[in-house]
Amino acid sequence: MAPNDSRSTHPNPPVELNVKQVVLGDLSFQTWYQSIYPEDLVKKDNELLYICRWCFRYSCDVDAYVKHTHTCEHRTTPLGTQVYDHGGYSVWEIDGEEHKLFAQNISLFAKLFVDHKSVFFDVASFLFYILTFTDPNDPENYHILGYFSKEKLSWDANNLACILIFPPYQHKQLGKLLMGVSYKLSGWERDTGLVGGPEKPLSEMGHKSYVRFWEERLARYFLTRLCEHNDSDESQSQRQKGKTSKGSRKKYPQERISVQKLGHATGMLTEDVITTLKSMGAAEPDTKPPQSKQTQSSTEAEEDSGQTVILRKSKVLDWAKTHKLTLGDPVREEGFLGDYALTSTPEESTIESPEEDE
Ligand SMILES: [Zn+2]
């Protein structure tokens, strides 16, 4: 895929950087943050660092770099196991313990563009998911566009530790693709799966990206439900109320809904659901006292143990229109491979819509 203009700039460029510019394959671009490359290998006042675009080995010496690119053992096939493949984009799972050098090298490279994460040498307890693009006309020439890492065992339900789309490939919705994949891989749709989210605290940029991703995720969930169930919901509520359809009745009524239930339906943590609903302005706290226990089923009573909100469906629709949301998820169910393909939900994957790109 064609990279963006390589002069991709960060909002707060730091004053003095020890590695100022990198060469990644045939791209060259500026760094954003201090490097933590070993000082005996990368001198402190180094201007330019050459990085192998397949294995992330680094060198200050252009001749050594060029020599390596002719012999790099990963130049035609990425490391790891392919877990996702759709439209030329693939995600490969790499075990940090099995491939320590690769994991360390991609982490060192990422640190040039990530400010706050410090886990770079304990790579053995992480899995790395690299995003690649392969032009179908040139199948042996793949590009690594970014990656995310994930703790193998997280006690805090973290489904992602660090995410980075490399600067030349940013602003192409690829971060959302990786975030979507991270939720899918946490297996929340299965009985044994976990509701999760990214490791906190998030950077300012990370927070902004995630809120937008979550907004789209919830909006798609609401709108898909509206499309699928609107008719049956309406006829059901009419039967319950013993009323016939009136022109004055609101087309999209407000709905009392449990935040926890929303989390379970979308794989999101309750705190992330609340953050997102606030940001969308689509819901407000439910101030009505809960119904008496006699009129509730046990499931409803259970859901009521958590926080509930009043969802305004018309606001969701407004949000979707304003942000030009497409119903089709950028992550395609049919793209998952191996074990991850088992949870595919065909009814979701049939919603077709053109891909949006900012
Ligand atoms: Zn290499």
UniProtKB/TrEMBL annotation:
Compositionally biased spans, kind Acidic residues: 349-358
Comp. bias intervals (Basic residues): 240-251
One Pfam family matching this protein: MOZ_SAS
Main location as per UniProt: nucleus
Single Gene Ontology MF annotation: zinc ion binding
Feature: compositional bias, Polar residues: 289-299
Domain MYST-type HAT as annotated: residue spans: 14-321
Locations listed in the record: Nucleus
Domain of life: Eukaryota
EC number, as in UniProt: 2.3.1.48
Catalytic residues (UniProt): E199 (proton donor/acceptor)
Region annotation (Disordered) ranges: 232-264, 281-309, 330-358
GO CC terms in record: NuA4 histone acetyltransferase complex; nucleus
Role, per record: Catalytic component of the NuA4 histone acetyltransferase (HAT) complex which is involved in epigenetic transcriptional activation of selected genes principally by acetylation of nucleosomal histones H4, H3, H2B, H2A and H2A variant H2A.Z. Acetylates histone H4 to form H4K5ac, H4K8ac, H4K12ac and H4K16ac, histone H3 to form H3K14ac, and histone H2A to form H2AK4ac and H2AK7ac. The NuA4 complex is involved in the DNA damage response and is required for chromosome segregation. The NuA4 complex plays a direct role in repair of DNA double-strand breaks (DSBs) through homologous recombination.
Family classification: Belongs to the MYST (SAS/MOZ) family.
Name under which the protein is recorded: histone acetyltransferase
The organism's taxonomic lineage, starting at the top: Eukaryota, Fungi, Dikarya, Ascomycota, Pezizomycotina
